[in-house]
Structure formats: C-alpha cells, structure tokens
Specification:
Layout (H helix, E strand, L loop, with lengths): L1 H17 E4 L2 E4 L13 E5 L17 E6 L3 E2 L4 E3 L4 E12 L2 E9 L2 E10 L6 E11 L4 E6 L7 E2 L8 E6 L1
Length: 171
C-alpha cells in the first residue's frame, strides 16, 4: 500500500512544504521569502548664501541638495514631500547674526510639529541652534522649515564654517 501512494506524495510534496492544513484552514508558510526591496529615502541640503532679514512666515530654502535619495527634497521650494509613508527623522541647524532672533518651525502640511529659537545676544554675536524631530508621515505629506511671526529679522547666516542646513530620512 505504501508504494501505491508514493507517486502521489512526491507530486504534492512541494505543495505540502509551502502550506500546512490546520483545523480545516490553509496557512501559507514562507519558506523562501523574497524580501521586497525598500528604496532609501534621505536628503541633506544647505543654504549657499545668507538670508538677510527674512520676513515672518518665510519658507527657508536650502538650495544645495548634496544628498536626495528618493528625490523627495525640492531645492527650489525648500520642501520635502514624502515619497512613501513611514517614520521620518528631520534635523536642522540655523545660524544667525547679528543681534536678533528667529523662531524656526518645522511644518508638516502647514501644521507646526517642531521648532527652534536662534537668538544672538549682542550686535557682533553669532548663534547656531539645532533640533531634531521624529514624525510619522503619509505618502505625499510636505515638510519644510519657516520663520514664525515672532522672528525679529536677524540675518540667517551662512559661511564655509557654519552651514545652515536641513536633513531628513525614513527610518
């Protein structure tokens, strides 16, 4: 009787190896998973020139995009658009000079989700401030940095030793 079923078993063996019948339900087993490749998403951009006295609610434009994996960052508008949903990290550094202050907000779809205060204490003082935020985004969400209504028009400063920059990446 064993010989009678050996041909049949050899025919269904590949099916049995990939599936298990449990309580009348068929459960798929992943015996040879082919991972779906995940395209990296990351950007790093900085300003090539200082912004003297930007107005209130001014979107900061980081016009030199050194890294733009996933093509989500637009160096002309200063806006990152999420190419896929997920958790993202954003970090920024803002340099100011002379005496004055800027409140900088991280905006997601025009809603404030983070911020930084850059404040120089004297007329010949320079300041550098950074912040980081982790944000859950949907595909198509837009992210940018902008000054707030509380900014007093200090210069956003850039030079070879002090990069004013904006970065982000999907976890």
């Amino acid at each position: 009787m064993v010989n009678k079923f050996s041909g049949y078993i050899s025919k269904i063996q590949p099916f049995i190896e990939k599936h298990v019948c449990f309580a009348g339900r068929l459960l798929a087993l992943v015996t040879d998973p082919s991972p779906t490749p995940v395209e990296p998403v990351a950007f790093y951009a900085y300003m090539s020139k200082s912004e003297p006295a930007p107005s209130n609610h001014h979107t900061l434009i980081f016009d030199v995009a050194k890294t733009n994996l996933g093509h989500g960052y637009n160096k002309y508008s200063g806006t990152f658009v999420a190419p896929s949903a997920g958790a993202y990290v954003f970090t920024w550094t803002i340099n100011t000079n002379p005496h004055g202050a800027h409140f900088i907000n991280l905006m997601v779809n025009n809603a404030v989700v983070g911020g930084t205060l850059t404040d120089t204490q004297a007329a010949d003082d320079y300041d550098s401030d950074s912040n980081t935020a982790v944000v859950a985004l949907n595909q198509g969400d837009s992210v940018n940095l902008r000054t707030t209504g509380s900014s007093d028009r200090a210069e956003i400063y850039v030079d070879i030793h002090a990069f004013t920059c904006f970065s982000g990446w999907r976890l």
